[in-house]
Amino acid sequence: MAGAEVEVVGLREFRAACRASGSGLTRDLTRALRAAGKPPLSRVKVLAGRTSSSPRATGLLAKSYKIAAAGTSAYVKNSVPYAAGAEWGVYGKWAGFRRRYPGPEPGGRGRFAWRAVLEQREEIAEILTRELEAMIAIQGWAAPS
Predict the structure, then answer these.
(1) What is the C-alpha separation between 5 and 63, in angstroms, rounded?
(2) Are 23 and 139 a contacting pair, CB within 8 Å?
(3) Measured between alpha carbons, how far is 137 from 145 in angstroms, rounded to an integer?
(4) Residue 37: how many CA atoms within 13 Å on its side-chain side?
(5) For the chain, what is the domain count?
(6) Facing residues of 78 across strands?
(7) pLDDT digits (tens, 9 = 90+) for 63-98
(8) Is residue 7 one of the residues assigned to a domain?
(9) Residue 11 covered by a domain
């Protein structure tokens, strides 16, 4: 594909162009997404960790956060059954929880993982830019600036 003109509008289109190149760049894209997940993963473990201002003294919530990448998306996942309630819950037993550990979203939602992603968004963008520039230059689609 070197020398060919390619127009990529979004991440899905970029992924399709990587697949079309036949050079294994889709694995590189997934690897870049996982790398971009490292800063928020570190931060979420601090936010939900074993401190006096954390929700549990056991640390199980914090230890269970992981980064997963599939397709054109990366996810902050947690395997403990109460993780969704801790992150987004506002009613019932979570009403007091949201007052004590408010998140940035309306109603105090998005307490740990979402907050970590918001706080680290510039670093995430920098990592993705750095990783994707190398991939783009390898294919000759564009020169890094």
Answers:
(1) 46
(2) yes
(3) 10
(4) 18
(5) 1
(6) 65
(7) 999 999 976 788 999 999 988 888 888 888 888 877
(8) no
(9) no
